[in-house]
Specification:
Elements (H helix, E strand, L loop, with lengths): L1 E7 L3 E4 L6 E3 L26 H10 L3 E4 L23 E3 L4 E3 L5 H10 L3 E6 L6 H12 L5 H8 L10 E4 L14 H18 L4 E4 L12 H10 L5 E8 L6 H5 L2 H21 L7 E9 L4 H10 L15 H16 L4 E7 L8 E3 L5 E3 L3 H10 L3 E3 L2 E3 L3 E3 L3 E3 L2 E8 L4 E8 L6 E8 L4 E9 L19 E2 L5 E3 L2 E6 L3 E9 L1
Length: 504
């Protein structure tokens, strides 16, 4: 099947913020205990952090990690996680019906971030707590010394401030499941006053206010309208969360599900700009898509564990084992984020280890890359630069839930400094290759570097500790041809592809 497309140097969507390829660690399941932290593991360092996991995180080059939640944060007392470990209390975590031993807290996680070459994106509790807890943790984390909370940090053995610049003002406050759930105006007022108090200390802080938990919420997008009406002048980003699933086992629908993300983002951008106009403001609110992924495989298991044996430390919750089709859809989600790089500046794949994650571990055993690791890795390594508009002539197929769905799902990033172009390409067609005939307007002199493709004859194929390389990208030789500003290549049926070009 032949598809023509155009990518022109003059059609720039926007700069890709490196933080688009962030991730998320919540005190949930085995993300912390048995994930990043396992004293006694053969690879554990002096602080108890697993080096095998850290190596995989560093391979992904994750620029920012959101912490400590998530639903967990809405009833979390941050003070429980600092000071001598032997003196820290054990608490019941109501969000996930688990026991929180507080062996890892702010100082330990900040240390882990430094070791993993990433920045900390700190979430604060605006569910059961409020302004005082926010200003106190900010002083503890960021002030050099000479005040109560900063000196307390020093007494805990942490001389230098953490210097956290990116903060989330609560989590999913529109959700009735959230501890301390609030109405939109109520939350917007609290977020506004909290943001102002934090910026009295440091005007350069970047603050993220909670948007809708997903685009299907009954209050969407009125929630965004009401919240931003209260706090528009005090915050910098609005958060979005969305997870995709294939519970109906409808592959055509699943492969098109990222189109819902495109519409979700477009609606949120429109709502932000409506409030901007309503306020006669020159300020632009950008977006933090700080929870996204595929999530559904573990739902029944999680229900069984929570009902049968609650209040465990590090129970195996949300442990989706991802297959080949999930990797295709994760790639499509990444395309949606890149295509909106002008407004989506922060992204966090939820989550990083064990909990709906690209990295899986065995307690006391190995760590391995899930299928979804690879499209995320490729985007993180080669998706930094300028997002470019790709226009394709593609009739695709008609789906009752998604309308007209193109066979080709594409995004492109041009790194002018390195003289590189990266094309991220999904072929949704199950039976036919796509023969792409492209015009690279203004990009004469670029030559193929590599074509990596993910294909498998079993859409349900997974990677395991025993077979960690069952579903991986493979190099295709000689598939990409470039002459002047013309490019041609073939995409195998039902495949995820990275194509890289380099100038000279």
């Amino acid at each position: 099947m032949k598809i023509k497309f155009v990518m022109d140097k003059n059609y720039v969507i926007g700069d890709v913020d490196d933080r688009l390829y962030g991730s998320f660690i919540e005190h949930l399941g085995r993300a912390v205990y048995g994930g990043i932290y396992e004293p006694g593991h053969p690879t554990a360092d002096e602080e108890g952090f697993r080096k095998d996991v850290m190596d995989l995180v560093k391979e992904l080059q994750v620029p920012v990690v959101r912490y400590p939640g998530g639903n967990f944060v809405s009833a979390y007392d941050w003070e429980d996680g600092v000071g001598p470990v032997a003196d820290r209390p054990k608490r019941l975590d109501l969000a996930w019906r688990s026991m929180e031993p507080n062996l890892v807290g702010l100082n330990e996680f900040s240390s882990w971030c430094k070791k993993a070459d990433t920045e900390l994106m700190m979430a604060i509790n605006l569910g059961s707590r409020g302004i005082d807890a926010a200003r106190n943790i900010l002083e503890y984390a960021n002030h050099p010394g000479g005040s109560y909370w900063s000196d307390l940090r020093k007494s805990h053995g942490v001389k230098d401030p953490h210097g956290i610049k990116l903060w989330c003002l609560g989590n999913e406050m529109d959700g009735p499941w959230q501890v301390g759930h609030k109405e939109a105006k109520e939350y917007g007022r609290l977020a506004d006053e909290t943001a102002k108090a934090m910026k009295y200390y440091d005007k350069s802080l970047e603050l993220v206010v909670s948007g809708s938990s997903n685009g299907s919420m009954a209050t969407f997008p009125q929630w965004e309208n009401e919240v931003l009406t209260e706090c528009y002048d005090s915050v910098d980003y609005l958060s979005l969360h969305n997870y995709l699933n294939n519970r109906a086992d409808d592959l055509d629908s699943f492969l098109a599900a990222n189109l819902k993300i495109d519409r979700f983002i477009d609606t949120v951008v429109s709502t932000c700009d409506f409030v901007k106009g309503k306020k006669r403001s020159r300020k632009q609110i950008n977006l933090s898509f700080d929870e996204w992924n595929v999530w559904y495989h573990s739902n029944q298991q999680d229900k069984d564990i929570s009902d049968r044996t609650p209040w465990q430390v590090g129970p195996p919750l949300l442990e989706d084992i991802y297959n080949f089709e999930d990797a295709l859809v994760v790639g499509a989600q990444i395309n949606s984020l890149i295509r909106h790089a002008d407004r989506v500046k922060i992204g966090c794949m939820a989550q990083l280890v064990n909990v709906i994650a690209p990295i899986m571990t065995e307690n006391g055993g190995s760590a391995w890359r899930q299928t979804i690791f690879y499209p995320f890795l490729q985007a993180s390594l080669f998706g930094r630069g300028r997002s470019m508009k790709v226009i394709a002539s593609d009739d695709g197929y008609d789906h009752k839930d998604h309308g007209q769905v193109p066979w080709l799902d594409a995004s492109a990033v041009w790194n002018e400094e390195k003289g590189e172009i990266s094309l991220f390409l999904l072929n949704r067609n199950r039976t036919e290759s796509l023969n792409l005939d492209g015009v690279l307007g203004g990009f004469a002199g670029y030559a193929p570097v590599e074509h990596l493709t993910m294909v498998h004859d079993d859409i349900k194929a997974v990677n395991t500790a025993e077979k960690p390389d069952n579903v991986v990208p493979t190099a295709v030789k000689g598939s990409v041809k470039v002459e002047g500003e013309s490019l041609s290549l073939d995409l195998p049926p039902l495949s995820w592809n990275l194509v890289r070009l380099k100038k000279g």
